[in-house]
Structures are given as structure tokens and as C-alpha cells.
Amino acid sequence: MGGDHGPAVVVEGAVAAVREFGASVILVGDRAAIEREVTRLGAQSLGLEVRHASQVVGMGERPSQALRRKRDSSLRVAAELVKDGKAAALISAGNTGAAMAISMFVIGVLPGVDRPAIAAVLPNLRKFTILLDAGANVDPKPWHLLQFAVMGHVYARDILGFDNPRVGLLSVGEEEGKGNELTKEAYEQLKASSLNFVGNVEGRDIYNGGCDVVVTDGFTGNVALKISESLAEVLTGMIKQELTRDARSKIGAKLAMPAFERFRRRIDYTEVGGAPLLGIDGAAIICHGASPVKAIKNAVRVAQEWTSAGLNEHIKAAIEAEVARAEQGGRE
User: Fold this and answer.
1) pTM confidence score
2) In the prediction, which pLDDT does 262 show?
3) In terms of DSSP H, where are the helices of the chain?
């Protein structure tokens, strides 16, 4: 029921996921509105389950209010389905803060995880970079950044296929000792971990392929993510302007169209669907409010990959191993 386009786009994306990936989907929200969209798409025979919810969390609503006052919201009902084991994952294009808060307090967090983190999967010159936290925790502690790094490492390995993901700590310089107190303390903990820690990285390393997982606090991560989204839009717009400036440019553009189409796909966030909320005792994909059909469809695909890969079990094991390692190091 959330997002900029409401149930029309979300239902169509879910229907596309059922048809293309064989997904099993429960649509949660206003039953009448959802069933209208299912009928419009001719998808009555797909076996989609509809679970009615009488309330909707607004895009500008405070997460705390949504959590306390809207116990029959589509977000809350969907989270309870995951908690009760009736669904494996929650996917939402609605209010990000509310989706995160409801996921944390209804579904719960994994043992050993203090704070879940939003992981943004971004394109780079080689493949992808995972940036986390992208907005869930604006004021974390150093050990939270270590946990983010562990979760990002497991996601990069299990879902994106990196053999030994390189983990970098976002700072104002590459040299050891650069940054604020948070990054300095987190650096020491990451250095002592079993992760493939490559040290401090700068903003440019998010996109040049210098590392596979970039760890930072949610305030910095969210600012970096929003700047990146804006820059991608501006660059695409500038290229279009230049390619249509005169007849000669238009001819060249026509010849180069296959390359431009490949470029568009590489920077298209809809290919990865949304950002996983890592650290909850289930699975949650948080989609952009402006997500089109393709993004919703691919969010369902990523949720399937998450659950089939046993990601949460691997995150729990990895965090337990790091805790044991730290305790051993303290005794020595």
C-alpha cells in the first residue's frame, strides 16, 4: 500500500515475480484495492494470497507512531506473518523508518546483533559494492560497525558471489589513524577481526571497485547514497542533452545506443530491487518509494535468494566467531 505509486505497481511487480520466478507471494493491504489490481492484470489464476489490513502507514508518518498506533497496518501485518513463519520475507516500498522499526520490534533481531543495518548494493567498475549502514543507525558505536562489516561480508559472499569480500571502513583518508573517534576505534576492531579488512577507504572507493563492502554510520551512508542517486540522474540527463544537441550527435547516439543501454542497466537500481535490512530474524527488503514494477519484481527475487542461501544462519555463525575471537584476544 506504500510507495509513490500505491498498490498498482506493487501488485504488478509481485505478479511478475510469480510468473517469472515462480515466487509464492502474500499481498498485504486493503483487500478491495489489491483484488482490483489482480483482476486488472488477469492474475486471478496465479494463486496469490491476499491478507487484509485495515490501516496504512503514511510516507511521512513517524516510525514510533506507526509502531504504537497502527497495529493493523499493512507493514505490521506483513511483519507478523514473517514472525509467525507464514512468510519468509517482508518487502515494502513504503515508509522506510516504519518498515525498519516494525521489522526490528515485531520480527526481532538475530542473536548477537545489536542493531540491524540497511545494505545498499551499488554498481562499481568490477561488479557491486555493498554500502552499509545506509540509514538505519545514525549514531552507532564502534562494535556496531564491526557487526555491519560481518553482515556485509556474509551478504557479499552468499548473495553476490564474492569469494573473500574485501571490507573497507569509510573515512576521510586511507592512512591508519585518519577519521573521527568512531572510525579510529572501529578501525582497530576491524583490524583484529578475521575479515578481509583492507583498511580505510574514501568515498571514491565505493565506485572504483577498490573494495566490496564499505562500512560507515547510517548518517554518512545515507548522505552518500542520496548523493549517488542524484549524481546518476544528473549524468544520465546530461548525456541525453548532449546526444540530442545537433544532427551529428543524434547520428552518433544512434550508433552507440547498445552501449548506452548497457550503461543504463549497470546503474539501474531496479536490477537489485531494494536494500536488504540485515540483522533481523527473518528477511526484509526495503524498496525505494519510487520503485517501478521491475524493482518490486527483483526485490522478490532477492528475498528468495536470501532465504534459500541460509543467510541468517551464516550471519549468526560469523558474529559468534568474531565474539569468540575477541574474547580469546582479550584473554591473551
Assistant:
1) 0.85
2) 67
3) 7-21, 31-40, 63-69, 74-83, 96-102, 142-158, 181-191, 218-243, 247-266, 293-308, 311-331
